[in-house]
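User: Teach me something about this protein's shape.
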Amino acid sequence: MTVSRVLNDRKGRFTEDTRARVLQAAQKLNYQHNRAARAMRLNQTFCVSLTVDGSTQSSFLRDPGELSIGTILPAIMYALEQRGYTLTLTPPQITPGQPSTNLLVDATIYFPTTRNLTALADSAGPVRIVIDQPQLDLPSISIDYRAGLIEAVEHLRTRGRSRIAFVGGPRELDVYHNTERYAGYVDGLQACGLPQAPELIFSSDFSFEGGRTVFDEVMQAQPDAIIAATDRSAIGLIRAARARGLSIPTDLAIVGFDDLESAQYVDPPLTTIHNPLMDLGLRVAELTVAAIERTLDPEHRHIRLPTHLVVRESS
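Assistant: First, the predicted structure itself:
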């Protein structure tokens, strides 16, 4: 039993010396897990599915990079693999009333792209974990988008900016990460004693081109700073500003959201809100495995990851 617990990375009443001796022996014997045998013995598949639950018209499905899934997905896959699980991608279920849960897995991770979660609420079967849906009575992990926007507004206010525009995602995108960023912008204005001006609020998609094309409309409102909902949009705004001869940040301060690698290399380097995407992926995997193995502490069913402002030259 001790050998089994060590090799399956489970807790037990044994010392670190015992663990080291077991692992050394396993390496010497070139021991490899037989996942099929383990699955049959424990009546588990050791497989987890990730499904995007929402409309095929969402920006996530048209361009997954817009929501940085390229960072989140590898982190989930790596962390699950380290715990003996594999990840499969399940096509989104778009037929009303039909659950999207794959019953041949131990758990399903949902990444909703709308607030219409009827299929999720009605589905049954394996363990369910949700990303960015803290209001549901299911194990969840979300990001504190609102606090990041508040910090960004306060930063711009300390730099003397008072007409702070906001370029959010599509108005029709009623999903947590979109609405919470806008709510943080509003809360930040209130915290700084700045009035909320409807003419300073704009929507676009989350792309470079979206930021570039909305720039002229934004500038008609004469802002002295802009906060964009994503780095990609913010970089598009910077490109448009420079093309029109504006100096960043002297004439116009710009702040993004995500802290993508490209934010460091745009000219000028982009001030942005760090989005803990890698940590999100790792923590999703941990939460999923704990739920499957029934070791999840009820007090830790809902995890919220913090954001923070990374100040660079664009502000």
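Now, about its shape. The mean pLDDT is 83. The chain has eleven helices and twelve strands. If you'd like, I can walk through any region in more detail.
User: That's plenty for now, thanks!
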